[in-house]
Design brief:
Elements (H helix, E strand, L loop, with lengths): L1 E6 L3 H4 L7 E6 L2 H7 L5 E3 L5 H10 L5 E3 L10 H7 L2 E3 L6 H16 L2 H9 L17 E5 L3 H11 L4 E5 L7 E2 L13 E4 L13 H6 L5 E4 L8 H10 L4 E4 L19 E3 L11 H18 L14
Parallel strand pairs: 1-2, 1-3, 3-4, 4-5, 6-7, 6-9, 7-8, 9-10, 10-11, 11-12
Length: 312
């Protein structure tokens, strides 16, 4: 029997759907996971505490395959998994729809000044003019990170007649190469960050990039807070370059109440909610997991696999 250790939250969704060669063991707390992890050959160890997941993974010395709902795995001990020859499958694409919708929501919120409309309602004030007058149609957007989320954002923005340019390893029509986008930053109304969290993307939007952005443009970040030099961004926002920032991710998380970013009037901070703004994530994850169990039993390649050297 192959021992599977996973959250008891999934028990109702996998009941009667697991093969007879598998022995499921369910945890209801981090301590229960720590007790079960050493026997796990297949694991789904997702916790809300990254430190707890790290501990469970290190305890799981028999592990052959680790699954996760998280798309970003920067807080996993990837070196340990690589040394032990563990296959890691992640949640790439599971939340692409809702995160892409969040990006479009953020763009429309900025373009139409919707935050000021809501505040006017709170004051019971009838506005005589729109606080935002920008149309998405005809604007230009740069997408950095063209995975499942970036591709979904691209498709959605096409419907708004946005001129979308994305960054790929080889430049072509509608694309820029990895060494070309910085020189053209000043031509975009929207700069959308959907890159994976890796050492290469850490701090990729720094003071120089922020200074090069178009005055009045908007930076949208649904990647990781560490991708942006936050201090430089705050200074740039105060100077109007960029004109706005729509930040679903920040550093640190949770952002402390006294952090200056909260008080920057042209910063929209949305508490890393984009992936949670839906009800289907867990169902999608379980369906994918069951498909991979069938592949595992047949010795087939699991999808999607994380490259443990690249970190995504």
């Amino acid at each position: 029997m192959t021992v599977l250790v996973m959250s008891a939250m999934a028990a109702p969704l996998v009941e009667g759907r697991l093969p007879d060669w598998m022995e499921p063991r369910f945890f209801r707390s981090a301590d229960e996971l720590f007790d079960l992890a050493p026997d796990a050959e297949i694991g789904w160890f997702d916790l809300y505490q990254p430190a707890g997941m790290d501990k469970a993974i290190r305890l799981a010395t028999k592990l052959k395959w680790l699954n996760s709902v998280y798309a970003g795995v920067d807080f996993f001990p990837l070196d340990v998994l690589r040394e032990r020859g563990v296959t890691l499958t992640n949640g790439t694409g599971i939340n692409a729809i809702t995160i892409a919708e969040y990006v479009v929501m953020g763009m429309l919120t900025v373009a139409k000044g919707y935050r000021d409309v809501v505040r006017a309602q709170d004051r019971h004030e009838w506005l005589l003019d729109s606080p935002g007058k920008m149309e998405l149609s005809g604007s230009r957007a740069l997408i950095l990170g063209y995975g499942a989320i970036g591709q979904r954002v691209d498709r959605m923005l096409q419907g708004f007649d946005v001129d979308v340019v994305k960054v790929r390893r080889s430049a072509g029509e509608g694309t820029l190469g990895p060494d070309d986008w910085r020189a053209q930053l000043g031509s975009f109304d929207w700069v959308i960050l959907a890159v994976p969290a890796t050492p290469e993307t850490d701090g990729m939007i720094g003071a120089a990039e922020i200074a090069a952005m178009k005055p009045g443009s908007t930076l949208v970040n649904v990647a990781r807070g560490a991708v942006v030099d936050q201090d430089a961004l705050i200074e740039g926002l105060k100077a109007g370059r960029p004109g706005h920032a729509f930040l679903d991710v920040v550093t640190p998380e949770p952002l402390p109440p006294e952090h200056p970013l909260w008080s920057v009037p042209n910063a929209h901070v949305t508490s890393h909610l984009s992936g949670r703004a839906q009800t289907k994530m867990f169902e999608r994850s379980v369906s994918r997991f069951l498909e991979n169990i069938a592949r595992f039993g047949k010795g087939e390649t699991l999808q999607p696999q994380v490259d443990l050297s690249l970190g995504y």
